[in-house]
Amino acid sequence: MSAGTITGIGRRSFLKTGVAGAAGLAIGFYLPGRFEALAAEPAAAATPASLNAWMLISPNDDVTIVIDKSEMGQGILTALCMMAAEELDCDWKKIRTEFAPAAKEYFNPAFGMQGTGGSSSVRSSWDPMRKAGAAAHDMLLQAAATQWNVDKSACRTENGVIYHDASKRKLTYGSVAEAASKLPVPQDVPLKDPKQYRIVGKPTKRLDTPDKVNGRAEFGIDVRRSEMVYAVVARCPVFGGKVASFDATKAKAVPGVKNVVEISRGVAVIANNTWSAMQGRRALDVKWDEGPNAAASSASISQLFADQMSKPGAEARKEGDAASALIGAKQNIVAVYEAPYLAHATMEPINCTADVRADRVDVWAPTQFQTVAQGTAAKICGLKPENAFIHTTYLGGGFGRKAGADFIIEAVEISKAIGKPVKLTWSREDDTQHDYYRPASYAKMAGGLDPDGWPVAWTTRIACSSIMEAWFPGSTKNNLDPTSVEGVANLPYAIPNIQVDYVRTEPGIPVGFWRSVGASQNGFFSECFMDELAAAGKKDPYEFRRHLLNKSQRQLGVLDLVAEKAGWDKPLSAGRYRGIAVLEAFQSFAAQVVEISVDRKARSVNVHRVVCAVDVGRVVNPANIVMQAESAIVYGLSSALYGEITIEGGRVKQTNFNNYPVLRIDAMPVIETYIVPSEEKPTGAGELAVPPVVPALCNAIFTATGKRIRRLPIRAEDLA
Amino acid sequence: MAIQFIVNGKQQSVDVPPNMPLLWVLRDTLGMTGTKFGCGMALCGACTVQIDGDATRSCITPVSSVAGKKITTIEGLSSDRSHPVQRAWIEVDVPQCGYCQSGQIMSAVSLLAKNAKPSDTEIDDAMKGNICRCGTYQRIREAVHRAADLHKTEAKPSRPHGTEDALEERALRAGGAA
Known about the structure:
- The complex is a heterodimer of chains A (720) and B (178).
- Helix content of chain A is 31%, strand content 22%.
- Chain A is α+β, with helices and mostly antiparallel strands.
- Chain A has a 7-stranded mixed sheet with strand order 10-11-8-18-15-16-17.
- The longest helix of chain A has 28 residues, at 121-148.
- With 178 residues, chain B is α+β, with helices and mostly antiparallel strands.
- Chain B folds into 2 domains: 3-75, Ubiquitin-like (UB roll), CATH 3.10.20.30; 84-153, [2Fe-2S]-binding domain (DNA polymerase, domain 1), CATH 1.10.150.120.
- Chain B has 6 helices and 5 strands.
- Chain B has helices spanning 22-29, 84-92, 101-114, 120-127, 137-153, 164-177, and strands spanning 3-7, 10-14, 48-51, 54-57, 70-72.
- Chain B has a 5-stranded mixed sheet with strand order 2-1-5-3-4, sandwiched between helices.
- In chain B, helix 2 crosses helix 5.
- At the A-B interface, helix 7 and helix 18 of A face helix 1, helix 2, helix 3, helix 4 and helix 5 of B.
């Protein structure tokens, strides 16, 4: 299968037409870009030659990199091209990209299926992309050598051109790509010495930026098909409920509404535009069978969790004898922490376009999980997976939300029911009220200090829903979901007695992967509680951590760097306070210092500055690491300052950005990011910086007010 | 009854319910998807367009209210990414997921039209209606400053390249001939 021909040619033609007016203009004000390459493209590009599943080269020297991860803002599109181009030695300006179809070749080794998440993309693509680039490079060299009848070792490449210096001959990649594509793929081609890198490790601008400043980038919600109709779905407001009956008379009377059909997840209203479909849904009369969860509330869920604290949990970590060590300790500190459900609130609301035909189904979606989308669509249509074609678009934010199959199910079922291509759009209210939420979680923490104020025991018991059991039933062992305890089970501190356990508790609210997953709440629990121990032991919070990290060099590295850059040893100006936190997440490491002021009369906190240090192993694109750190810090601050989904009557109270607020530019602190140089294998950066910012902020508030924040989000009364 | 207005210099006539928001007319009826749906309540700014030069949330603007008016969308800012705000956005590499950026850029264009040299506080004040969940705010501030510099160094009586005015002039000429 040639990936480039599936989605590629169509989109390329579209782009070419779209920029035709600009062809020939001098566009020198930005560096490498897809648009620039296109503008220079001759009128007709012949079929590209496929050198492997990721790399196609056209006779005009354009190099198409097939992107098998979802680009949702995290910069993976550019990073994958950097890895490939480093070994391929192609001309960066001639790179274009296509999103991969759903196919086995593109399975993420971290998941065993095609998908993007868990900060796994750079980590999982680092070897395959470089190896593919090196093999393709070798094939191009061989093809030129054969054409010249010289030995391959006498040839070299530079920027997409092959040279035979002895005879002063040269050939471009495009001119030998066809011949190269017919050669056997060589195995184990040596990879470059990192000292020779000219792309990897250099700050590189995003390849997708030019299409994101003029409205041209196609997100899922922008997909248009001929004969397409528009749909919205009415869903039971109570989780687990279903349709009892409905009357479509009034909905069908709304101008523009064409049809009303029941699907497995509710009632779909179909119209000739999105707005009419929304008006039709407003007029729709549905009676719901609310099911068993109609009485659930945030208070009842919190109580349910609290009741679990006396029950035995699944053991996530056990070192020494924490229970006895607590009894023998000079000082005991006990605290209960709570974190709420959180919605993802991607800027692009959930959507999916589907076209079900007798022999195939096409799905255009901003999906993070192509294999799941493919299997889901095929199953609904009674087709084989290979007849379900998944067209991944740009994602207007993902954060884990778009790993869900719910929107795929809805769109495919509607198209199947009405026999037409349909675009399903969720309103912001749908998105806020029917998410797969970051699980609410409850933790009881206990620590014991010796007479010198150093910890001798640490215990944590956590109660929350299991994400893994909700998404992949049967995937956990001994009732222990690692995502429920990550961020505390991997506590890096040298404490001789540690016990962490988990009591799986299911209140009936759908949960899912929310940027940084378990570390988002457990990082708050563990790093705030560490601060409590430091204060109880009368130690400086930085020195306290430092002392206990002597065997955790990478945590220590980011902690020392952040303290140095934040000026931890220097006094703050009057009215300013700071807090610190350090965490490992997804095999990467981050530490942060948050600097704040608190207006105790107005009961408000102002975040002035966040200093962040990260260690992500070898860095592919330093510019993107900085972007991801800033992005994650903003995401984390939103959750700490405002983020709360509350349940009442089995349904979500919040509806839109007015009552589920997120950080806006007027609350944006100055963020400084520093990278620890490393030659370790590269690891992910997309989620890493979310977990530390919440505890660092809460620890800073403690220094300002003397009050501990043990329940999120931060409330006005916490600041009085 | 058809409602007429000008989008990016081109005369448009649409036959839709008069209370249909301009956002959906642009996206679904006219197929101009650069303007984004984010909240439907003027809370996030993703749908920002200019109506007679003023930044406006198209998601709550009934199409009937723009009859006879001139609308500029992200697609109409320039034909070649040459608008100083677009150039600044590219130089600073502002977008991440990019979904909110049409609205961010349209708000920034409006701000700079009224205030050629905004301070950080003035930028925050003008841009706080535009949410970015990727957290690109730091670079948005930087890019607005950069765009202000570009505007200043390139100040000309008429705007460069196929911008709204030029396109509109062409459309009017074409209309006159028809």
